[in-house]
Amino acid sequence: MTLLIGSFLALMLVGLPVAISMFVASGLYLLVYGIAPDIIIAQRMIAGVESFPLLAVPFFILAGNLMNIAGVTGRIYAFAVALVGWMKGGLAQVNIIGSVIFSGMSGTALADAAGIGTIEIKAMKDHGYPVEAAVGVTAASATLGPIFPPSLPFVIYGMMANVSIGALFMAGIVPGVVMTLLMMVTVAVFARRRGWGSDAPFEMAKLLSASVEVLVVLAVPLLIWALTFVLSLNMAVLVGLAILVALDWYFDFSAVMALMTPVILIGGMTMGWFTPTEAAVAAVIWSLFLGLVRYRSMTFRSLAKASFDTIETTASVLFIVTAASVFAWLLTVSQAAQLMSDAILAVTDNWIVFLILVNVLVLVIGCFLDTIAAITIIVPILLPIALRLGIDPVHFGLIITLNLMIGLLHPPLGMVLFVLSRVAKLSVERTTMAILPWLVPLFLALIVITFVPAVTLWLPTQMGLIR
Question: How far apart are CA 120 and CA 116, in angstroms?
């Protein structure tokens, strides 16, 4: 075990990518101890990605890329400005609301930061906000992406923990709302202390227009439900969507069709129309409809670019998954998981103390490991202990994911940190200092989600997804 973990850390310290470090450390361990034939590496790598839920990964990535090139991000931003731009610290509040909406489409923090985050930082700088404030609130709000459904980390965790991905998606909604409210309160405090004003005039017409769009989006599921009393479910869905398209064409709403994306995904999974993996395909189809038919902002050249970007990102993610699966298997074979379990249970058998230790451990791991690799490695080690202490695996998944999202904001390997550093043209050091104050609402949310399980489990329990 010492050779496996030691060589992995040493290779990371000399600058090798995480996936390469895990792969080489695994090969070295097998070579030295000869516990299995060399071919086992290839077999474990294939087994690591031979999973139906993993099909959601490329489709959710593609959906996020398509939303960016279809101009949906700009429409969401304009909608958020109309809704909350008149508040003090208006564009910071817009930043948060825009991230909440966009998170229901992309499922990744990086897509959020690189997509709508680029628009938000530029707008805040143009309105006189310090660039550090723009970067800080954008980084904090980007963590909402993998908490609200859909979520790529939830897909990976569900696969590793053998937990319902649909239950994980539903479990993220209330914690996501809690995080959003805490961030908005933080913006209000900063606005009061630093004298931030509103960034858009209060116009009742625009506010009413935005409110009407929200009501239209919420009315569609109710309309479909009402139609099921006289029509079959499939016909009710088709008629409901046809009425929505007709209203959108007649009134030329600015963002109704974009706002329908999370409604379609969450509603479809809730009603049993498709699995989370099939929901990813539905997200792609809806993105193509918006870009090619409704907004007509997507060209075949931009479509090709989005496809190639998706291939590149997917290859990177799946290579990490394959390398991590071999590494995690060797940790199990070498009894590292059992030793870790025995060490933790020797310290405490209290679930509260255990979750405190988990938070500290995963926060540190999140600063050094890619999110996907971290989930693949630590879940087989920590989840059995959590189950022995009576912790629900869905609740545990939220804790792990939020910790790793906070890790994305830290050096040395925080990807959101590096993305925003490039977008804002700031040094990594200045970007890190800009993000630090915005960790306060994230840690408050982490405390609530960790020690009040009902926040996470209430909704999926009410929907019958968990018992």
Answer: 6
Alpha-carbon gap, residue 235 to 436, rounded angstroms: 51
pLDDT tens-place string over residues 303-354: 888 888 888 877 877 787 788 778 777 777 776 666 777 777 777 778 888 8
Residue 358 vs residues 95, 163, 351, 383: alpha-carbon distances, Å? 31, 19, 10, 10
Q: Can you read off the two tokens belonging to residue 174?
A: 């209330």
Q: Which helix (H) or strand (E) holds 278?
A: helix 276-289
The mean pLDDT value of the chain amounts to 79
Closest CA to 263 of 141, 179, 398, 148: 148
Chain centroid to CA 286: 19
Residue 303 DSSP SS3: helix
Give the burial string for 291-322 (b: 16+ CB within 10 Å, else e).
Answer: bbebbeebeeebbeebeebbeebbeebbbbbb
Q: CA-CA distance, 271 to 263, in Å (whole number)? A: 11
